[in-house]
């Protein structure tokens, strides 16, 4: 069950060993987008990815590559803590949630073995130690040696800040060695 994704993890490790600076892994299709049939689809995709993902992190660590490699596991949006499709267990799924979701990270300067942030009692939105997408982006850029306040792009002929003018911060609490500035 793990061969396909496990092979992708092995290729990712080999690319990192050879100095490739950005590697992105996908699972074919969109198996995490469970608007329906979550009980049938989610256990299968978890079984296919959990062990290979763990093995990738262990492999990077054993080879001395984890400290210089950021491993991010997550998507661009979370899932609501309630089901949709009128509660029918055969077709139930979960809709998008941009207000409270989780991801895990390893290596590259992140502190290990910790949980950061909390949602409300329903798991609907972040209420303690909130991290915005721009905060997370700024934290990653810091780990990559870049200053988000110095990064710009051009859109329709206009120069824009990478964070689109939104406030952002480096989330020091999740870093092994926070910035000294």
Give keywords.
two-stranded antiparallel sheet; single chain; alpha+beta; 3 helices; two-stranded antiparallel ribbon; 181 residues; 28% helix; 2 domains
Reconstruct the topology from this structure.
Elements: H1 3-17, H2 38-62, E1 71-73, E2 78-79, E3 96-97, E4 104-106, E5 118-119, E6 126-128, H3 133-143, E7 152-155, E8 158-161
Antiparallel strand pairs: 1-4, 2-3, 5-6, 7-8
Kindly describe this structure.
- The structure is a single chain.
- The protein has 181 residues and is of the alpha+beta class.
- It folds into two domains: 3-111, no CATH class; 131-181, no CATH class.
- It is built from three helices and eight strands.
- It has helices at 3-17, 38-62, 133-143; strands at residues 71-73, 78-79, 96-97, 104-106, 118-119, 126-128, 152-155, 158-161.
- A hairpin with a 2-residue loop joins strand 7 (152-155) and strand 8.
- The longest helix has 25 residues, at 38-62.
- The chain is globular and about 50 Å long.
Give the rounded overall mean pLDDT.
Answer: 90
Number of helices, counting only DSSP H or I runs of 4 residues or more: 3
Order of helices and strands: HHEEEEEEHEE
Distance between the termini: 47 Å
> What's the number of domains?
2
What is the number of strand segments? Answer: 8
- Which ranges are low-confidence, i.e. pLDDT below 50, for 5 or more consecutive residues? none
Structural class: alpha+beta
| Rounded radius of gyration (Å) | 18 Å
Largest sheet: 2 strands, antiparallel
Shape: globular
Strand content: 5-15%
- Widest beta sheet: strand line-up: 1-4
């Amino acid at each position: 069950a793990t061969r396909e994704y496990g092979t992708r993890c092995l290729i990712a490790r080999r690319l990192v060993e050879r100095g490739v600076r950005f590697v992105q892994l996908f699972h074919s299709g969109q198996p995490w987008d469970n608007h329906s049939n979550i009980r049938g689809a989610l256990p299968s995709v978890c079984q296919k990815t959990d062990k290979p993902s763990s093995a990738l992190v262990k492999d990077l660590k054993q080879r001395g590559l984890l400290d210089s490699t950021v491993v991010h596991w997550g998507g661009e949006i979370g899932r609501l803590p309630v089901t949709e499709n009128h509660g029918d267990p055969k077709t139930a799924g979960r809709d998008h949630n941009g207000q409270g979701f989780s991801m895990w990270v390893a290596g590259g300067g992140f502190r290990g073995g910790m949980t950061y942030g909390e949602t409300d009692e329903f798991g609907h939105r972040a209420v303690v130690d909130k991290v915005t997408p721009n905060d997370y982006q700024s934290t990653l850029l810091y780990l990559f040696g870049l200053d988000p306040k110095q990064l710009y792009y051009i859109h329709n002929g206009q120069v824009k800040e990478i964070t689109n003018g939104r406030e952002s911060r480096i989330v020091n609490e999740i870093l092994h060695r926070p910035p000294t500035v």
